[in-house]
Design brief:
heterodimer, A: alpha/beta, Rossmann fold, 8 helices, globular, B: mainly alpha, binds adenosine-5'-diphosphate, binds magnesium ion
């Protein structure tokens, strides 16, 4: 992989490339004698949506958890750009919502982020509009539809104004309409400047959303290229097989 | 004093002592349960074993221990607590706290398992985590309070020793039943026994209704 490939096609390559937002260096993670991550390295460009693509069990969620700091790797490290704020948000594959109303879920997150009470009401209203949840603000969060639950999880992740947003297969259990709504929300958040890492095993979703693609298989990075380059002609045999649906995991 | 008056007095004192003990136990036991579920500190596993073992403390032994503490020549004799309702409340609090702590630890552990990564991703502090768990598990805790109240209302060994079963002062349902039975005063004993049974039943039903109603109101 060379980082000359990670700029979206059509954009002139800047003379001095912006430093990467984040550098993952030789991440290794072993459990039960299996090498779940076998030296994963990549650099995340400063802006846009990076798709972490790969079959089930490739190690995508594990990588995301390490980036989030939820689990430490056995070896290797994650380094951030010196100006990075440290604000990272995460949306899990299965939304974990509090046993409270939609509004109370957001209020809870704002309180944890130490936002004073007088500012919270307005911020909650904004988040509800953005996630299109105003109509069910007083409903029990866990009674919402899958799509609404994931949008609430996204709204909650936005509370801390993340500079980096990690999405772990957020639409894997949603129907097409709910998936489209979530993708629109994701694009809106990206347009406001947050860097997004989207874990997905859905090629079409990666094609629709991603600026660059990291292809992960059996705990290794096989490719990291712009989305158009990747989809035009994947370099590795594994990525090729994945794109044609013939990759054996 | 007419019989009815005596019975009312005894029942009210029982409720006062046992409910006070449950409230105090909840104030200690629920945060303790949360700490045991969420915390990572030295001696934690020892404390967990200790709390669980204390659920089976024999009431007479607790009563005896407190008797030694509170008796005139004991280390806390100056407080003059022996043979007062306060001593009875303390004794029952010691008996009930481990029940509430252990039960709530179980509830909090389950919920923490579910919430842990999400709360860590939000960078919630340990205290914020505990507060979140207590808030979201509050309905399940009603069951812990019920179990505690059951234990308090039905125990006799501790209140007998530290209360002394003094008429109009420290006589509660269980000690009165024992005394009246031994005096052959079966009418009074059986009446009190039935009241005790009915009370337990009513309290349980009310709490269970309250729990499901609260759950519906509170988006569980
Ligand atoms: N803590 C763990 N202990 C043991 N095995 C794990 C652990 N976490 C993940 N795995 C295994 O590692 C592999 C990669 O997991 P994961 O990152 O969840 O894959 P995916 O790419 O589907 O998100 C899977 O085979 C999974 O079973
Ligand atoms: Mg996964």
């Amino acid at each position: 992989m060379s980082d000359s490939n990670v700029f979206p096609l059509g954009h002139p390559r800047p003379r001095k490339p912006a430093p990467p937002l984040l550098t993952a260096e030789s991440l290794r993670y072993q459990r039960g004698g299996r090498e779940l991550l076998a030296g994963v390295s990549f650099e995340l460009p400063e802006k846009g949506i990076t798709a972490l693509l790969g079959p089930n069990g490739a190690g995508k969620s594990l990588t995301l958890r390490i980036l989030m700091g939820l689990i430490p790797p056995d070896s290797g490290q994650v380094g951030f750009h010196s100006g990075f704020s440290g604000r990272i948000g995460m949306v899990f594959q299965q939304p974990v919502l509090l046993r409270r109303s939609v509004r109370a879920n957001l209020d809870h997150a704002l309180r944890i982020a130490r936002i004073p009470r007088r500012d919270r009401t307005g911020m909650i209203a904004e988040l509800l509009v953005m996630a299109n949840l105003t109509h069910c603000a007083e409903n029990a969060a866990r009674s919402l539809s899958g799509g609404e639950q994931q949008r609430l999880a996204m709204a909650r992740a936005l509370v801390a104004d993340p500079e980096l947003l990690l999405l772990d297969e957020p639409t894997s259990s949603l129907d097409p309409a709910a998936t489209a709504a979530f993708e629109d929300l994701t694009l809106e958040v990206a347009a406001k400047g947050a860097k997004i890492v989207l874990v997905t095993h859905d090629l079409h979703q990666a094609r629709r959303l991603a600026d660059d693609i990291i292809f992960l298989h059996r705990g290794r990075v096989y490719e990291h290229r712009t989305a158009s380059a990747f989809f035009n002609a994947p370099e590795s045999a594994e990525a090729k097989a994945y794109c044609t649906g013939t990759l054996l995991t | 004093m007419p019989l009815e008056g005596q019975i009312v007095e005894i029942v009210l004192l029982s409720l006062k002592v046992s409910l006070s003990a449950v409230v105090l136990s909840a104030l200690v036991g629920i945060p303790l349960g949360a700490l045991l579920a969420v915390g990572r500190f030295r001696g934690q596993s020892v404390l967990i074993v200790l709390v669980n073992a204390s659920m089976g403390l024999p009431p007479v032994v607790v009563g005896l221990g407190l008797y030694l503490l509170f008796s005139r020549s004991g280390p806390l004799g100056v407080l003059q607590l022996l043979y007062t309702p306060a001593a009875m409340i303390i004794a029952q609090t010691i008996l009930v706290t481990p029940i509430i702590a252990s039960f709530s630890q179980q509830v909090f552990s389950d919920l923490h398992h579910e919430y842990d990564e999400m709360l860590r991703a939000m960078k919630a502090s340990r205290w914020q985590t505990m507060a979140t768990l207590i808030h979201d598990a509050r309905h399940s805790l009603i069951t812990a309070l019920l179990a505690g109240l059951g234990r308090a209302l039905s125990e006799i060994g501790a209140v007998m020793i530290v209360g002394g079963n003094i008429a109009h002062a420290t006589r509660v349902m269980t000690t009165a039943i024992a005394l009246e039975t031994s005096k052959g005063n079966l009418y009074l004993a059986v009446t009190l026994g039935l009241i005790l049974l009915a009370l337990s039943g009513v309290i349980n039903v009310v709490m269970i209704l309250l729990r499901s109603r609260l759950e519906r109101l509170a988006h569980v």
